[in-house]
Design a protein that fits this description.
Layout (H helix, E strand, L loop, with lengths): L2 H12 L7 H24 L5 H22 L11 H31 L8 H5 L3
Helix pairs in contact: 2-3
Length: 130
């Protein structure tokens, strides 16, 4: 293989792909640390009185962190690989939504249906059980 063929192969490999710089990796790392520290602080300080609000805020931070990882570390954009990375992203999102919603549905129904006799019991009554 001549030097000209190697140069053409190298140019073809680089076409449409973005490679990160040290600065972009550091920006991604800093954003990841911040997006991890804030939910940790929210939970440890009990900032929100309602646990459901805390869970929703933590999930929002998780979604933002996934996007940061995809952009800064996986270099995903609409131009690379003729849009196939975007199709892979959409497919992954669909699978994650199906998996998470199905898991939440199963856990809710297991909690509701497994021990219905304990629904109205107080903690004091539960401690008296054999």
């Amino acid at each position: 293989m001549s030097a000209h063929d190697q140069h053409d192969a190298h140019d073809h490999h680089e076409a449409g792909q973005s490679h990160g710089t040290f600065g972009s990796y550091m920006i991604g790392f800093a954003l990841s640390v911040i997006l991890t520290a804030i939910p940790f602080w929210l939970v440890m300080t009990g900032y929100f009185a309602n646990p459901q609000t805390t869970a929703i805020v933590i999930m929002a931070f998780a979604v933002v962190q996934i996007i940061v990882h995809m952009i800064y570390f996986l270099h995903m954009n609409t131009r690379s690989e003729s849009g196939w990375t975007m199709m892979a992203l959409i497919f992954t999102i669909v699978l994650v939504v199906i998996t998470l919603s199905g898991s939440m549905w199963v856990m809710y129904h297991l909690n509701t249906n497994m021990m219905p006799q304990m629904q109205g019991m107080s903690p004091h009554d539960m401690s008296q059980m054999p």
